[in-house]
Amino acid sequence: MPEVKGFRGYRFDSQVAGPYDDVITPPYDVINPSQRAELMARSPHNMVHVLLPEGAGDERYQNAANHLDSWIAKGVMKQDPEPSLYVLSQTFKGLDGEELVRKAFFAVARLPEYGKSSFLDHERVFEKKVTDRLTLTEHTRANLGAVFVMYRDPENELSPLYDVANGRTEDMRAITIDGVTQRLWRIPHDNAVTRFLRDQVLYIADGHHRFRTACLYRDRMHEREQPEGERPYDYILMGFVAMEDPGLRVWPTHRLADPPEGFNETAFLEAAGQWFDINPAGDDLAAQVEQAPGCALGMAVHGGGRYLMTLRDIDRSAFLGDDRTEAWRDLDVAVLHRGIFERIMGMPEGAEYVYEPKADAALETVVSGEKGLGFFLKGTRTDQICACAHAADPMPQKSTYFYPKLPSGAVIHRLV
For a tag site, which of 27, 315, 386, 412 has the least CB within 10 Å? Predict the structure, then answer.
């Protein structure tokens, strides 16, 4: 049973911090080195100084804490006077070029005890990433970025929450480095939100490492402090998006690979033909995949052909094995990894691939010969994500690409 409520967030004061464009960023894990350098140069108050701090070893974590403490001491960031919810509107161009608007709200949610979670996930986490974020959390004592969660609202019961976007000027407006227009409104906490989400199952779309980090930090602090009542670290910052929101899209992440030793295009097509209907495709390969019914994959071979591969109506357990759940076998990306990569091509489980969300860029990588093979997918449906979450059967890596990400720095939740 989730417990979601408003909180007294910390936000940048543009009168002190400077323009919001120069301080708000995407999450740390989608900022590349050149973007990091650009963001650091924009402002001494840019969130990247805390998210991806400079320094060697443990020094960088202390540098992050020093930045955040200094900003608060100088009024660069200020805490709101009363528990609030924070409504977010994101205007962006999707990967298909269509302009979209996605709405969300920030609140905090009580972290679950193990084995009693109402937050379902679908991805594995990597301990190296968790260790890094946990060390940063111990130094900064803050949720610097939100976990992206989805909730169901078929009757639009929470839609009045977003009316503020039509009623008054936003409290923050920023265009982040990914080209997304971010607008934020602070509103008083509404008990209707708490009541509505109390009976929900919430699905973690993005931020699995942040969620795991927060649970570990909570456990460490309980052991250290032995508190009698609740503490701020019992809660985690989350961004909530309705599954019915027209701006919520799950984009595919296409795969690029080097052909395995001895790869022969003709032999591969013959072997795959036992399971797939295979037809030649053109330059619009990704579009053909998206429009095809059922499980469809695209394949491009450097110096060779381009193909649309449609899985026949088969017993998927015979093709993919029966060691995973039906929800997992229903995934196109599972068909690609277990069926094509591992069974047909003989590649090892857990082999590394290059992941590219932009279909044109993926195809050009094959055409140029930088990679010999490209595989193109549809976006995973939200019902498939939920099914894998309920089955507790993690998806293959990079099975979902939620774009845009929730911004970092729009509001943070301090754990003290």
Answer: 315
